[in-house]
Amino acid sequence: MIKKNIVTYGEILLRLTPFNHGDLINQSSALNMSFAGAEGNIVSSLSNLGHNTTIISSLPNNSLGKSAFRFLNSFGVNTDYITFKDGRIGSYYIEHGASLRGGNVIYDRLDSCFSSENIAESIWLKVFKDSNFYVLTGITPALSKECQKNILNSIKIAKLNNVKIVFDLNYRRNLWTGKESLTFITKIINDVDILIGNIGSISDIFGFKYNSTSEFKELESISMSACDFISNKYSFDLVGMTIRNQINATHNQLGGIIKIKDKFHSGRFYDLEIIDRLGGGDAFVSGLLHGLIKNYRPDQMINFANACFALTQTIKGDVNYFEEKEIIDFSSINYTGHIKR
User: What φ, ψ does residue 31 adopt, rounded to 5°?
Assistant: First the structure.
């Protein structure tokens, strides 16, 4: 059977971090360089798990753009629909947190190549012809009106081709306000089949009210309430929620839940030391989609997604490099960091 395609539309960013992990930018004389971006992270992880994926994006026609292009190719992502043009690549700088000091992200992505690119209708018609999922996040529409138009046009064509829409709320306060986000999301949410979020995004965008807590089980219960809150307003095939109980910047408890047909499924949660705080939610999304495509039972699906979420936080970078067997083993065995021989 021919594997169908998973399509995404999003910006590839230059990722810069102090050379010494945990240093501040103002004490650093050198930066590590890589590439990331929520949508690219998701399809890179899915390609690594053996799926056919395609990204639609735009990059500058220079060595940075070509390096980002090769980065995606290294995972097997189809980059045929990335255009090269004059302009700049969006970038972000990460100061990793430590102990009680939180991390910090500085964006420099205004007027990037991606944010001004108009995607032709013919492109959407081609990519959705043999696709089953279209992955979007709440980051992309926050970048420009052009991005919003591209999303609205693409969703119409995707639905005509019976492609399932996956939307990760991924709310970013430093890109737009909750009101601006809600105004746009209400234009597309009735077409969304799979919604991903967390307590914070449901609260910031839709006004869900809750009392904060530092107990994981209480956060799990609040996440279920947030799921009910949003699924009572709109109809979805599946709602997924990540859960992060932050003891401090480097000690977190991670997990998640899913709601399918009014039934909740929660899996194992992980108490771990964080190496790299970014990319965990993207790994969770890729884990859920992998489970859906492979026809996992709901309990298997959430356990796999939670393991993806946790494992990705134990390595540097935004992408989940682990293979299916490694993830299943991790989710099935009580690992405590011993060497596997």
Answer: -125, 140
Assess contact for 279 and 15: CB atoms under 8 A: no
In this structure, how many other beta carbons lie within 10 angstroms of the beta carbon of residue 234? 14
* Burial class (CB within 10 angstroms; exposed 0-12, middle 13-18, buried 19+) of 93: middle
pLDDT at position 336: 65
Q: What is the pLDDT of residue 176?
A: 93
pLDDT of residue 15: 97
Q: Output the CA angle 57-40-297, nearest 5 degrees.
A: 130
Cα(209)–Cα(18) distance, integer angstroms: 37
- Residue by residue, DSSP assigns 161-180 as TTPEEEEE----TTT--HHH
- Residue ranges of domains in the chain, CATH in brackets: 5-332 (3.40.1190.20)
Task: Give the separation between CA 167 and CA 189, rounded to whole angstroms.
Answer: 8
Which regions of the chain are under pLDDT 50? 1
Cα separation of the two ends of the chain: 36
At 264 the three-state DSSP class reads strand
Per-residue pLDDT tens digits for 132-149? 999 999 999 999 999 999
Q: What is the pLDDT of residue 9?
A: 98
pTM value is 0.95
In a 13 Å sphere around the CA of 287, the CA atoms on its Cβ side amount to 40
Residues 6+ apart with CB under 8 A from 15: 33, 34, 35, 36, 91, 92, 94, 317, 318
